[in-house]
Write a structure and sequence with these properties.
With 114 residues, this protein is of the alpha+beta class. Helices cover 35% and strands 37% of the residues. It has a four-stranded antiparallel beta sheet.
Length: 114
């Protein structure tokens, strides 16, 4: 099973391809760079794969992104300035304190990441 969802132009020679595929018998979402040049045309090693069992969590995390946090000037917004000084682990812990749905499973997943 393979279904292209879409692509985003990264530069003149590279697109970012988003697709649902079956790799090694496991369905997931693949986000990978596709390069077109004289030397090589095809997928590169740059990218990631979200397994089906983690897709709901990935989708939830993406939905937490506020487009207003991006600025056209290239400068970080006030909330981003605050966040950039904290290590990723601290950011995740701060968010956990605010969340009423903090389960043991989520804590185990975060420990595996770090």
């Amino acid at each position: 099973m393979e279904r292209d969802i879409g692509k985003i132009k990264k530069n003149e020679n590279t697109d970012i391809i988003i697709r649902i595929d079956d790799f090694g018998g496991k369905i997931g979402l693949t986000i990978r760079e596709f390069s077109k040049s004289d030397r090589y045309t095809g997928f590169t090693k740059s990218g990631t794969r979200i397994p089906l069992e983690s897709f709901a969590e990935f989708k939830e995390l993406i939905s937490l992104i506020d487009e207003n946090e991006f600025s056209s000037s290239g400068k970080l917004s006030k909330s981003e300035e605050t966040r950039k000084d904290k290590p990723q682990r601290q950011l995740m812990e701060d968010e956990d304190e605010d969340s009423e749905e903090n389960s043991d499973d989520e804590s185990e997943i975060k420990e595996e990441i770090f």
